Amino acid sequence: MAHWEEYEQEGRGRSAAKRAATAIEDLAKILVDLSEAEYGRLPLEGDLRRELGVARSTGGHSSRKRQIKHFAALLRRDEETCAVLRAFVDGSQESHQQQTEAFHQLEQLRDRLCDPQQCAAALGEVRAAFPLIDAEKLAGLARSVHAGGDKKAYREIFRRLRGAAES
Q1: Burial of 9 (0-12, 13-18, 19+ CB in 10 A)
Q2: Listed residues 77, 108, 131: the one ending a domain
Q3: Cα→Cα distances 94→15, 32, 89, 90, 148, Å
Q4: What is the reported pTM?
Q5: Is 72 in the same domain as 110?
Q6: Count of CB atoms situated within 10 Å of the CB of 145
Q7: Share of the chain above pLDDT 70, in %
Q8: How many domains does one find in the chain?
Q9: What range does the domain containing 109 cover?
Q10: Which of 92, 52, 85 is nearest to 70 (CA)?
Q11: At 108, which CATH number?
Q12: Could you give the CA distance from residue 12 to residue 20 in angstroms, rounded to a whole number?
C-alpha cells in the first residue's frame, strides 16, 4: 500500500488537513466577531489573546483578513486551546439560542394575552408559570389592549412577563 493511501484511509490526507485548517479559520473569524462581553469571558491568555485583540482592532478588509489568517495559524499550533475555544463558542451560541427561544415564547404569550379570544387561557398559563406575577394588573393591561389597541399597555405586558421570567 502506498504511503499516501495510508494517510487518506486514516483521514490525514491533504484534503483532511485543508478541512481542519478551514475549520480553525472559521473559528478565528467567529472569535474576532465576538461581542465585548463575550470577548472578556474568553478563556484565552498571553500571545493568543494579544493577537486576537490585534485582529479585532484591525480595520480594512484585506488587513483584517490577513490578521485573522495569522491568528488562525497560531491557533493551529495549539490543539488543546483550539478545543477549549470551540467549546466556549458552541456553549455561547447554544446559550444565545435558548435566550432567543425564551424571548419568542414570551412574545407569543403576550400576543395571546392581547387576543380577546385567547386571553383567558393565556392568563391561566401565566398564573401557572409565574405564580408571583400580578395577574389582575396583567388582565387590566390586556383589557386596555383589547379595548383600544393601547401600545403602551402592550409593551408593559411584555415587560412584566420578562421580569417574572427573569426572577
Answers
A1: exposed
A2: 77
A3: 29, 18, 8, 6, 39
A4: 0.55
A5: no
A6: 22
A7: 93
A8: 2
A9: 98-166
A10: 52
A11: 1.10.60
A12: 10
